[in-house]
Automatic annotation (TrEMBL):
This is Epi-inositol hydrolase. One of its GO terms (biological process) is isoleucine biosynthetic process. Residues 3-102 form the Thiamine pyrophosphate enzyme central domain. GO terms for cellular component: acetolactate synthase complex. PROSITE patterns: TPP_ENZYMES. InterPro entries: DHS-like_NAD/FAD-binding_dom, THDP-binding, Thiamin_PyroP_enz_cen_dom, TPP-bd_CS, TPP_enz, TPP_enzyme_TPP-bd. Keywords: Hydrolase, Thiamine pyrophosphate. The lineage of its organism: unclassified sequences, metagenomes, ecological metagenomes.
Amino acid sequence: MIAQTGIPVGETMAGKGSLRYDNPLNLGAIGATGTLGANIMAREADLVIGIGTRYADFTTASKTAFQNPDVRFININIAEFDAYKHSGLPLTGDARETINRLADLLNGWTVKADYRARAARFNQDWDAEVERIYSLGNAPLPSQGEVIGAVNTFSDARDVVLCAAGSAPGDLHKLWRTRDPKGYHVEYGNSCMGYEIAGGLGAKMACPDREIYVVVGDGSYLMMSHEIITSIQERVKLTIILINNHGFGSIGALSRSLGSQGFGTRYLARNEQSEQLPTDEMPLNEAKKAYLPVDLAANARSLGAHVIEANSITDLQQALAAAKAQAKTTVITIETDRYVGVPGYESWWDVPIAAVSEMASVREARVAYEQARKKERYYL
Protein backbone atom coordinates (compact mmCIF):
# COMPACT_ATOMS: atom_id res chain seq x y z
CA MET A 1 0.00 0.00 0.00
CA ILE A 2 2.77 2.47 0.80
CA ALA A 3 4.55 1.79 -2.49
CA GLN A 4 1.27 2.55 -4.24
CA THR A 5 0.36 5.67 -2.25
CA GLY A 6 3.65 7.06 -0.92
CA ILE A 7 2.33 7.21 2.66
CA PRO A 8 5.33 7.11 5.06
CA VAL A 9 5.43 4.71 8.01
CA GLY A 10 6.44 5.08 11.65
CA GLU A 11 7.09 1.92 13.65
CA THR A 12 6.05 1.04 17.19
CA MET A 13 8.03 -1.49 19.21
CA ALA A 14 5.62 -4.24 18.13
CA GLY A 15 5.58 -3.07 14.52
CA LYS A 16 9.32 -2.76 13.98
CA GLY A 17 10.36 -5.14 11.23
CA SER A 18 7.16 -4.78 9.23
CA LEU A 19 9.35 -2.93 6.72
CA ARG A 20 13.06 -3.20 6.07
CA TYR A 21 15.00 -0.37 7.67
CA ASP A 22 16.14 0.90 4.25
CA ASN A 23 12.70 1.17 2.67
CA PRO A 24 12.61 4.86 1.61
CA LEU A 25 9.19 5.32 3.22
CA ASN A 26 10.24 3.82 6.56
CA LEU A 27 10.72 6.70 9.00
CA GLY A 28 11.71 4.26 11.74
CA ALA A 29 10.72 4.34 15.39
CA ILE A 30 7.98 6.71 16.49
CA GLY A 31 7.18 8.34 19.83
CA ALA A 32 9.24 8.80 22.98
CA THR A 33 11.88 6.40 21.64
CA GLY A 34 11.46 7.59 18.08
CA THR A 35 13.55 9.01 15.26
CA LEU A 36 13.76 12.62 14.17
CA GLY A 37 11.87 12.14 10.91
CA ALA A 38 9.09 9.98 12.33
CA ASN A 39 8.37 12.42 15.13
CA ILE A 40 8.45 15.51 12.92
CA MET A 41 6.11 13.99 10.34
CA ALA A 42 3.83 12.65 13.08
CA ARG A 43 3.65 16.09 14.64
CA GLU A 44 2.51 17.62 11.33
CA ALA A 45 0.21 14.83 10.06
CA ASP A 46 -3.47 15.59 9.46
CA LEU A 47 -4.33 11.89 9.11
CA VAL A 48 -2.85 8.96 11.03
CA ILE A 49 -3.64 5.36 10.07
CA GLY A 50 -2.96 3.15 13.09
CA ILE A 51 -2.40 -0.49 12.15
CA GLY A 52 -2.76 -2.78 15.16
CA THR A 53 -1.48 -0.14 17.55
CA ARG A 54 -2.80 0.38 21.07
CA TYR A 55 -1.48 3.96 21.10
CA ALA A 56 0.58 3.26 24.21
CA ASP A 57 2.22 6.06 26.19
CA PHE A 58 5.61 5.72 24.49
CA THR A 59 4.05 5.50 21.03
CA THR A 60 2.11 8.76 21.47
CA ALA A 61 4.90 10.48 23.43
CA SER A 62 2.38 10.85 26.25
CA LYS A 63 -0.27 12.32 23.92
CA THR A 64 2.11 14.95 22.50
CA ALA A 65 3.17 13.24 19.24
CA PHE A 66 0.32 14.41 16.99
CA GLN A 67 0.06 18.19 17.16
CA ASN A 68 -1.83 19.11 13.99
CA PRO A 69 -5.03 20.81 15.26
CA ASP A 70 -7.07 19.00 12.61
CA VAL A 71 -5.52 15.55 12.98
CA ARG A 72 -7.85 12.59 12.53
CA PHE A 73 -7.26 8.87 13.08
CA ILE A 74 -8.25 5.73 11.19
CA ASN A 75 -7.59 2.72 13.40
CA ILE A 76 -7.30 -0.81 12.02
CA ASN A 77 -7.49 -3.31 14.87
CA ILE A 78 -9.04 -6.65 15.76
CA ALA A 79 -9.83 -5.20 19.22
CA GLU A 80 -12.67 -2.67 19.20
CA PHE A 81 -11.32 -1.10 22.38
CA ASP A 82 -8.18 -0.01 20.54
CA ALA A 83 -9.90 0.76 17.24
CA TYR A 84 -11.94 3.56 18.85
CA LYS A 85 -8.98 5.32 20.51
CA HIS A 86 -8.27 8.99 19.76
CA SER A 87 -11.86 9.35 18.52
CA GLY A 88 -10.73 7.45 15.46
CA LEU A 89 -12.70 5.92 12.62
CA PRO A 90 -12.67 2.26 13.73
CA LEU A 91 -11.98 -0.43 11.15
CA THR A 92 -12.31 -3.61 13.17
CA GLY A 93 -10.70 -6.48 11.33
CA ASP A 94 -7.59 -8.29 10.22
CA ALA A 95 -4.77 -5.87 9.43
CA ARG A 96 -3.69 -7.43 6.12
CA GLU A 97 -7.20 -7.79 4.75
CA THR A 98 -8.15 -4.27 5.78
CA ILE A 99 -5.01 -2.78 4.26
CA ASN A 100 -5.68 -4.62 1.01
CA ARG A 101 -9.21 -3.18 0.92
CA LEU A 102 -7.86 0.31 1.60
CA ALA A 103 -5.29 -0.09 -1.16
CA ASP A 104 -8.09 -0.96 -3.59
CA LEU A 105 -10.05 2.12 -2.53
CA LEU A 106 -6.96 4.31 -2.87
CA ASN A 107 -6.16 3.09 -6.38
CA GLY A 108 -4.86 6.05 -8.37
CA TRP A 109 -4.28 8.31 -5.34
CA THR A 110 -0.81 9.26 -4.10
CA VAL A 111 0.74 11.79 -1.74
CA LYS A 112 2.43 14.80 -3.31
CA ALA A 113 5.87 14.13 -4.77
CA ASP A 114 7.63 16.55 -2.40
CA TYR A 115 6.03 14.85 0.63
CA ARG A 116 7.26 11.45 -0.52
CA ALA A 117 10.73 12.87 -1.22
CA ARG A 118 10.84 14.42 2.25
CA ALA A 119 10.15 11.03 3.85
CA ALA A 120 12.95 9.46 1.79
CA ARG A 121 15.37 12.17 2.95
CA PHE A 122 14.42 11.54 6.57
CA ASN A 123 15.10 7.83 6.02
CA GLN A 124 18.57 8.55 4.61
CA ASP A 125 19.40 11.14 7.26
CA TRP A 126 18.42 8.74 10.01
CA ASP A 127 20.63 5.98 8.66
CA ALA A 128 23.52 8.45 8.75
CA GLU A 129 22.70 9.22 12.40
CA VAL A 130 22.65 5.49 13.19
CA GLU A 131 26.06 5.12 11.57
CA ARG A 132 27.37 8.05 13.63
CA ILE A 133 26.25 6.42 16.87
CA TYR A 134 27.55 2.99 15.81
CA SER A 135 30.97 4.54 15.12
CA LEU A 136 31.19 6.89 18.12
CA GLY A 137 34.57 5.65 19.39
CA ASN A 138 33.83 6.59 23.00
CA ALA A 139 36.70 6.04 25.45
CA PRO A 140 37.77 4.62 27.81
CA LEU A 141 34.52 2.63 27.78
CA PRO A 142 32.35 2.16 24.68
CA SER A 143 28.80 3.45 24.55
CA GLN A 144 25.79 1.16 24.50
CA GLY A 145 25.01 2.41 21.00
CA GLU A 146 28.38 1.14 19.79
CA VAL A 147 27.69 -2.27 21.33
CA ILE A 148 24.34 -2.46 19.55
CA GLY A 149 26.07 -1.44 16.33
CA ALA A 150 28.65 -4.20 16.62
CA VAL A 151 25.96 -6.85 17.15
CA ASN A 152 23.73 -5.46 14.37
CA THR A 153 26.61 -5.30 11.89
CA PHE A 154 27.82 -8.81 12.69
CA SER A 155 24.40 -10.47 12.67
CA ASP A 156 22.92 -12.10 9.60
CA ALA A 157 19.70 -10.75 8.10
CA ARG A 158 17.56 -13.57 9.55
CA ASP A 159 19.07 -13.42 13.03
CA VAL A 160 16.97 -12.15 15.94
CA VAL A 161 17.78 -9.50 18.52
CA LEU A 162 15.83 -9.99 21.73
CA CYS A 163 15.57 -7.53 24.62
CA ALA A 164 13.08 -6.37 27.23
CA ALA A 165 13.99 -3.73 29.79
CA GLY A 166 16.21 -0.81 30.63
CA SER A 167 17.69 1.66 28.16
CA ALA A 168 18.53 -0.98 25.53
CA PRO A 169 14.98 -1.36 24.14
CA GLY A 170 14.71 2.35 23.43
CA ASP A 171 18.14 2.36 21.82
CA LEU A 172 17.30 -0.72 19.75
CA HIS A 173 14.01 0.83 18.67
CA LYS A 174 15.90 3.80 17.25
CA LEU A 175 19.05 2.11 16.00
CA TRP A 176 18.54 -1.54 15.00
CA ARG A 177 18.59 -2.01 11.24
CA THR A 178 15.87 -4.62 10.87
CA ARG A 179 16.13 -6.75 7.75
CA ASP A 180 13.62 -9.50 8.48
CA PRO A 181 10.04 -9.40 9.81
CA LYS A 182 11.02 -11.70 12.69
CA GLY A 183 14.39 -10.11 13.35
CA TYR A 184 13.31 -7.77 16.16
CA HIS A 185 11.80 -9.21 19.35
CA VAL A 186 11.56 -6.65 22.16
CA GLU A 187 9.16 -6.97 25.10
CA TYR A 188 8.48 -3.36 26.02
CA GLY A 189 4.81 -3.44 26.97
CA ASN A 190 5.75 -3.76 30.63
CA SER A 191 9.54 -3.38 30.33
CA CYS A 192 9.74 -6.78 31.99
CA MET A 193 13.16 -7.15 33.63
CA GLY A 194 14.26 -10.77 33.43
CA TYR A 195 12.31 -11.67 30.29
CA GLU A 196 15.42 -11.55 28.13
CA ILE A 197 17.11 -14.92 28.64
CA ALA A 198 13.88 -16.86 29.15
CA GLY A 199 12.42 -15.14 26.09
CA GLY A 200 15.54 -15.94 24.11
CA LEU A 201 15.13 -19.58 25.01
CA GLY A 202 11.60 -19.57 23.60
CA ALA A 203 12.66 -17.70 20.46
CA LYS A 204 15.42 -20.21 19.75
CA MET A 205 13.03 -23.12 20.27
CA ALA A 206 10.61 -21.49 17.81
CA CYS A 207 13.33 -20.69 15.25
CA PRO A 208 16.27 -23.07 15.77
CA ASP A 209 17.76 -22.08 12.40
CA ARG A 210 18.30 -18.46 13.51
CA GLU A 211 20.94 -17.04 15.82
CA ILE A 212 19.29 -15.38 18.82
CA TYR A 213 21.17 -12.39 20.24
CA VAL A 214 19.89 -11.63 23.73
CA VAL A 215 20.80 -8.08 24.79
CA VAL A 216 20.55 -7.72 28.56
CA GLY A 217 21.82 -5.22 31.09
CA ASP A 218 23.35 -6.14 34.41
CA GLY A 219 20.16 -5.05 36.21
CA SER A 220 17.91 -7.40 34.26
CA TYR A 221 20.53 -10.16 34.35
CA LEU A 222 20.48 -10.07 38.15
CA MET A 223 16.68 -10.30 38.10
CA MET A 224 16.59 -13.62 36.25
CA SER A 225 19.63 -15.28 34.74
CA HIS A 226 19.03 -18.87 35.77
CA GLU A 227 17.37 -19.91 32.50
CA ILE A 228 20.95 -20.17 31.24
CA ILE A 229 20.90 -23.51 33.04
CA THR A 230 17.82 -24.57 31.08
CA SER A 231 19.48 -23.60 27.80
CA ILE A 232 22.47 -25.78 28.70
CA GLN A 233 20.26 -28.65 29.82
CA GLU A 234 18.13 -28.57 26.67
CA ARG A 235 21.03 -27.78 24.30
CA VAL A 236 19.32 -24.59 23.13
CA LYS A 237 22.16 -22.27 22.18
CA LEU A 238 21.88 -18.52 22.80
CA THR A 239 24.34 -15.68 22.43
CA ILE A 240 23.86 -13.33 25.37
CA ILE A 241 25.34 -9.83 25.24
CA LEU A 242 25.62 -8.82 28.89
CA ILE A 243 26.06 -5.04 29.08
CA ASN A 244 27.48 -3.99 32.43
CA ASN A 245 27.19 -0.37 33.55
CA HIS A 246 27.25 -1.24 37.26
CA GLY A 247 23.69 -0.28 38.01
CA PHE A 248 20.34 0.66 36.56
CA GLY A 249 21.45 2.76 33.60
CA SER A 250 18.00 3.60 32.30
CA ILE A 251 16.52 4.76 35.58
CA GLY A 252 19.78 6.50 36.45
CA ALA A 253 19.60 8.61 33.29
CA LEU A 254 15.89 9.29 33.78
CA SER A 255 16.44 10.28 37.40
CA ARG A 256 19.27 12.64 36.48
CA SER A 257 17.17 14.24 33.75
CA LEU A 258 14.40 14.90 36.29
CA GLY A 259 16.67 16.50 38.87
CA SER A 260 16.86 13.52 41.24
CA GLN A 261 20.58 12.90 40.63
CA GLY A 262 20.23 9.17 39.97
CA PHE A 263 19.67 8.29 43.62
CA GLY A 264 20.25 4.61 44.35
CA THR A 265 20.75 3.58 40.72
CA ARG A 266 24.37 2.40 40.90
CA TYR A 267 25.74 -0.72 42.53
CA LEU A 268 27.90 1.18 44.99
CA ALA A 269 28.55 0.63 48.68
CA ARG A 270 27.29 3.18 51.19
CA ASN A 271 29.72 5.76 52.52
CA GLU A 272 30.99 4.36 55.83
CA GLN A 273 30.98 7.76 57.53
CA SER A 274 27.70 9.26 56.28
CA GLU A 275 25.93 5.92 55.65
CA GLN A 276 24.52 7.54 52.51
CA LEU A 277 24.36 6.01 49.04
CA PRO A 278 26.61 7.80 46.54
CA THR A 279 24.81 9.76 43.85
CA ASP A 280 24.89 8.72 40.20
CA GLU A 281 27.13 11.70 39.53
CA MET A 282 30.24 10.28 41.25
CA PRO A 283 33.24 10.33 38.85
CA LEU A 284 34.23 6.96 37.35
CA ASN A 285 37.63 6.77 39.08
CA GLU A 286 35.95 7.25 42.48
CA ALA A 287 33.04 4.95 41.67
CA LYS A 288 35.37 2.05 40.84
CA LYS A 289 36.61 2.10 44.45
CA ALA A 290 33.04 1.69 45.69
CA TYR A 291 31.82 -0.94 43.20
CA LEU A 292 30.21 -3.96 44.80
CA PRO A 293 32.38 -7.10 44.41
CA VAL A 294 30.12 -8.83 41.87
CA ASP A 295 31.66 -10.90 39.07
CA LEU A 296 28.94 -11.47 36.49
CA ALA A 297 31.27 -13.37 34.15
CA ALA A 298 32.08 -15.85 36.92
CA ASN A 299 28.39 -16.14 37.69
CA ALA A 300 27.56 -17.02 34.08
CA ARG A 301 30.37 -19.62 34.04
CA SER A 302 28.95 -21.17 37.19
CA LEU A 303 25.65 -21.69 35.34
CA GLY A 304 27.39 -23.64 32.59
CA ALA A 305 27.71 -21.00 29.88
CA HIS A 306 30.77 -20.39 27.77
CA VAL A 307 31.90 -16.87 28.71
CA ILE A 308 33.94 -14.32 26.77
CA GLU A 309 34.96 -11.07 28.47
CA ALA A 310 35.24 -8.21 25.97
CA ASN A 311 37.03 -4.99 26.89
CA SER A 312 36.46 -3.03 23.68
CA ILE A 313 34.36 -2.98 20.53
CA THR A 314 37.15 -4.81 18.70
CA ASP A 315 37.07 -7.49 21.40
CA LEU A 316 33.30 -7.67 21.04
CA GLN A 317 33.50 -8.17 17.28
CA GLN A 318 35.95 -11.05 17.78
CA ALA A 319 33.80 -12.47 20.58
CA LEU A 320 30.72 -12.51 18.36
CA ALA A 321 32.56 -14.58 15.78
CA ALA A 322 33.77 -16.97 18.47
CA ALA A 323 30.28 -17.22 19.96
CA LYS A 324 28.76 -18.12 16.60
CA ALA A 325 31.15 -21.06 16.35
CA GLN A 326 30.20 -22.28 19.83
CA ALA A 327 27.70 -25.10 20.20
CA LYS A 328 26.36 -23.99 23.58
CA THR A 329 25.04 -20.81 25.14
CA THR A 330 27.70 -18.12 25.20
CA VAL A 331 27.69 -15.01 27.37
CA ILE A 332 29.74 -12.03 26.18
CA THR A 333 30.30 -9.44 28.91
CA ILE A 334 31.26 -5.85 28.17
CA GLU A 335 31.36 -2.71 30.29
CA THR A 336 29.83 0.46 28.87
CA ASP A 337 29.81 4.14 29.75
CA ARG A 338 26.55 4.73 31.60
CA TYR A 339 26.63 8.45 30.84
CA VAL A 340 26.82 8.22 27.04
CA GLY A 341 23.33 7.43 25.84
CA VAL A 342 21.36 7.80 22.64
CA PRO A 343 19.55 11.16 22.73
CA GLY A 344 15.86 11.80 22.27
CA TYR A 345 14.60 13.28 19.03
CA GLU A 346 11.75 15.81 19.01
CA SER A 347 9.85 13.89 21.66
CA TRP A 348 8.84 13.75 25.32
CA TRP A 349 7.66 11.32 27.98
CA ASP A 350 5.39 12.31 30.86
CA VAL A 351 7.17 11.27 34.06
CA PRO A 352 5.65 13.21 36.99
CA ILE A 353 8.09 15.19 39.09
CA ALA A 354 7.61 16.14 42.74
CA ALA A 355 5.77 19.45 43.06
CA VAL A 356 7.49 20.14 46.39
CA SER A 357 11.19 19.47 46.96
CA GLU A 358 14.15 20.86 48.89
CA MET A 359 16.37 20.14 45.87
CA ALA A 360 16.78 23.03 43.43
CA SER A 361 17.37 20.59 40.56
CA VAL A 362 13.97 18.96 41.16
CA ARG A 363 12.21 22.32 41.37
CA GLU A 364 13.77 23.37 38.05
CA ALA A 365 12.74 20.08 36.44
CA ARG A 366 9.18 20.58 37.72
CA VAL A 367 8.93 23.94 35.93
CA ALA A 368 10.02 22.33 32.63
CA TYR A 369 7.60 19.45 33.23
CA GLU A 370 4.61 21.74 33.68
CA GLN A 371 5.46 23.52 30.44
CA ALA A 372 5.83 20.27 28.48
CA ARG A 373 2.50 18.92 29.76
CA LYS A 374 0.66 21.77 28.07
CA LYS A 375 1.24 20.01 24.74
CA GLU A 376 -0.69 16.90 25.79
CA ARG A 377 -3.89 16.36 23.82
CA TYR A 378 -6.94 14.18 24.32
CA TYR A 379 -8.24 14.08 20.72
CA LEU A 380 -11.87 14.31 21.84
